[in-house]
Structure formats: C-alpha cells, structure tokens
Design brief:
Length: about 280
C-alpha cells in the first residue's frame, strides 16, 4: 500500500469518528443521523455534474448498498440510544474487520499475507480491548446496546464488500461515492419521518449546521475509503478505517467526559502495533 493511500485512510478514520461523535452529542441519534445523511447529499450533489454517474455495472451494487446502509444506520442509532460512545463505537467497529477479511477472501479472492492477517488480528484485539471497559463497567453491559452494536458490525462488513466491488466497477470511485450519498439520503429520510417525523423535522430546522458539518465529514471520510479500496485490498482498507476508534476514544474522554482507564492506553498500543504490521503488508 502506498504511503499516500495509508495516510489518507487514517485521515478518513478521524473524520469518521467526528461525525459519529456528532450523533451522540446533545440530540436524538435518529434526528442527527438523518441530518448528516441530508448534509452528505447536499455536499455531494454539486459535484455530481462534474464527475457524472457511475457505469451501469455499478448500479445494482449502489442499490444494495443503500439498503444495507439503512439497516446500518438503524442499528447504530438503536445502539447509541442506550450505550456509551466509548463502548458501542469500538464494538460496532471492532467485529467488522475480521468479518470483512474473511468475506473478501472467500467471495472475491483477495488473499492477504500472514503479516497482513497478523496486523488485522492485533488491531482488532486492540479495538475489542478498548471496548471491554468503555464508559460502563463490563458487568453492566446493556445487552440491547451490545446486540445492536454487533448487528452494526455485520452491516459494516456487508456494505464494505458491496461498496468495494461497486467502486471498482463504477469507472470512477468518486462518481460511485457521490451517487451513494444522494441515494442514502433518499432512503433514510423517509425512514426517519416514518419512525419519528414530529421530532426529526424540528431538529432539521434548529441543527442544520450540525447536519451540514457531519455530512461534509462523512462525505470526505467514506469517499476517501472507497477511493482507497480501488487501489488496495478491501479488507486492509476496512481495517485501517477502524483506527477511528482511537479518535472516538479521545472524543469520548475529552468531549463526552467518559472515564479514561489504563486499559485504553494498552488498547491504543495494540492498535498501533496492528497498524505497523498492516503497513508491512
């Protein structure tokens, strides 16, 4: 993997942690997630005339991704309703890399070296250690929150594989990502209005700036990831993206005032070791 791609995915991870923190701060998760989806679409639409639409071969993958993303947002929202960011976010992101690496090996024939697999395993171990003592005591895990976090991980694996393939078939990964952001908003907004339209609409009026900021972060983050997936193995890019848990942990401690424990330092060291091994892939 080129240094440019490696560093770009790390920047994408920081942006990803930023918009996830926006979901948890000061507003109902459904309202904020909907605002961010709208913000992403508003950011993406002005660029579509310049990049054009993806090739027709990518359209079925776009449609499948929009449906998977709906389940992803629904599961993530439910997890955040009851779980701390420092607990839910690492669980949701931590289970996905191994799922994705396994799926890409069996379904699209991407084979990683022993060093690459070692890096993924070490990084995932750090992610799970980070979640083991998130913002709550381990013995007080909310089963509902954890269950939805694991469901979120499954959807992350699914859309990572689908979008990795779709971006490669699109002719231009930017065209694919921009179209995806618009399509996601078209799917999520009706869902949000159906679920709780009376709360979502006032939030859109009051917090539109937050939605635009989150949308810009999401567009930059996932657009970069899809571009990277056309240049490097999907599993490696997806795993590197999960370094966002480090940024998420910092946000959880500094902004949300969740407790800082020594185990988070140990987890950070594991994640860094995993990064070094992945860079050697």
């Amino acid at each position: 993997m080129e240094n440019t791609v490696f560093l770009a995915v790390l920047v994408a991870a920081l942006c990803h942690a930023g918009w996830n923190a926006l979901i948890k701060v000061g507003l109902d998760p459904l309202s904020t997630t909907t605002l961010i989806a709208i913000g992403s679409a508003l950011v993406a639409m002005p660029f579509l005339p310049f990049v054009g639409l993806p090739l027709p071969a990518a359209w079925p993958w776009l449609a499948a991704s929009a449906i998977i993303h709906l389940f992803y947002f629904a599961a993530l929202i439910e997890a955040y309703r009851t779980g701390d960011l420092g607990q839910v976010y690492p669980i949701a992101r931590g289970a996905a890399p191994l799922m994705t690496a396994t799926a890409t090996t069996f379904f699209i024939g991407e084979h990683l070296s022993a060093v690459g697999w070692s890096g993924i395993v070490v990084l995932v171990a750090g992610v799970f250690l980070l979640s083991a003592r998130g913002g709550r005591d381990l013995m007080r895990f909310d089963r509902r929150a954890v269950s939805f976090a694991l469901l979120t991980a499954l959807t992350i694996c699914a859309y990572s594989v689908v979008d990795g393939i779709g971006a490669r078939l699109a002719g231009d990964p930017n065209a694919y990502s921009l179209a995806l952001f618009v399509l996601n908003a078209a799917v999520l907004v009706p869902y949000a209005l159906f679920r709780d339209g009376r709360a979502v609409i006032p939030a859109m009026r009051v917090y539109w700036r937050r939605g635009l900021l989150g949308g810009a972060l999401q567009t930059l983050s996932y657009g970069t990831v899809l571009w990277a997936m056309t240049l490097a193995p999907i599993a490696i890019v997806a795993t590197l993206r999960e370094t966002s848990v480090l940024f998420g942990a910092v946000i959880a401690v500094i902004v949300l005032k969740e407790p800082l424990r020594a185990v988070r330092v140990a987890a950070a060291l594991l994640i860094v070791c995993g990064l070094v091994l992945i860079r050697m892939q």
